[in-house]
């Protein structure tokens, strides 16, 4: 499918939207309502505020309570097909101050690279079908979070149905298989 405006192929991409700090969830809610009211579900797909649950600490010790921490204050991530109408709706949503990657003067922004958005999606535990393309048996990876955070190993199996990989890691001089979600790993660059 070709975009009539500039003859480029029409594809879904991720874009980063600037917001007023601490208004990210309000912008997300407003944008979701605007997508529905403007019937743009076929152009604007996922809207993510990159939040992570973290323990509440008091005097350096966990209280047993948790809170949501925004990993990227002032930003909302939007998966969309960049059309004039979708661009207009997003940038005119209350609380949106602009797009990252736009030179201004009416120029549409550039999408975020696959590598950049994958890092964000993994940090918030969002699964994306394209994540599996990057991993195969024999790849060296590092576990990003959880009890095995920082552990490195080699993928021995990829289970797309369960969204998991099996990694052989060395513990106490022995190879030990570890199962991890694809959202919890990152390929080690050689």
Key descriptive features of the protein:
190 residues; Alpha-Beta Plaits; SH3 type barrels; 11 strands; globular
Write the layout of secondary structure elements.
Elements lengths: L12 E7 L4 H14 L6 E5 L2 E8 L2 E10 L4 E6 L3 H8 L4 E4 L14 H10 L16 E4 L8 E8 L4 E8 L2 E8 L3 E3 L3
Antiparallel strand pairs: 1-5, 1-6, 2-5, 3-4, 7-8, 7-11, 8-9, 9-10
Task: List SSEs in N-to-C order.
Answer: EHEEEEHEHEEEEE
Label the overall shape.
globular
The CATH topology of the largest domain is given as: Alpha-Beta Plaits
Number of strands: 11
The residue ranges in which pLDDT falls below 50 over 5 or more consecutive positions are 1-6
Give the number of helices: 3
Question: Could you estimate the helical fraction of the residues in percent?
Answer: 10-25%
CATH architecture of the largest domain: 2-Layer Sandwich
Number of domains: 2
CATH class descriptor name of the largest domain = Alpha Beta
> Main β-sheet, in a few words?
5 strands, antiparallel
Rg computed from alpha carbons, rounded to a whole number of angstroms = 20 Å
CATH superfamily of the largest domain: NusG, N-terminal domain
The assigned structural class equals alpha+beta
What distance separates the N and C termini?
Answer: 37 Å
Oligomer: single chain
Beta content: 35-45%
Mean pLDDT, to the nearest integer, reads 85
In order across it, which strands form the biggest sheet?
10-9-8-7-11
């Amino acid at each position: 499918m070709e975009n009539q405006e500039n003859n480029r192929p029409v594809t879904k991409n991720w874009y980063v939207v600037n917001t007023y700090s601490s208004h990210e969830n309000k912008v997300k809610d407003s944008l979701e309502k605007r997508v529905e009211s403007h019937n743009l579900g076929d152009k604007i797909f996922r809207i993510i505020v990159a939040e992570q649950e973290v323990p509440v600490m008091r005097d350096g010790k966990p209280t047993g309570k948790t809170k949501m921490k925004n990993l990227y204050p002032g930003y909302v991530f939007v998966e969309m097909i960049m059309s004039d109408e979708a661009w207009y709706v997003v940038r005119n949503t209350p609380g949106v101050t602009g797009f990252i990657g736009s030179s201004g003067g009416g120029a549409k922004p550039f999408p975020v690279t696959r590598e950049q958005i994958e890092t964000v999606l993994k940090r918030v535990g969002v699964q994306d079908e394209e994540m599996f393309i990057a991993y195969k048996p024999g790849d060296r990876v590092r576990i990003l979070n959880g009890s095995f955070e920082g552990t490195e190993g080699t993928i021995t199996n990829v289970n797309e149905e369960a969204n998991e990989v099996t990694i052989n890691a060395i513990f106490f001089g022995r190879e030990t298989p570890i199962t991890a979600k694809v959202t919890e790993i990152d390929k080690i660059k050689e």
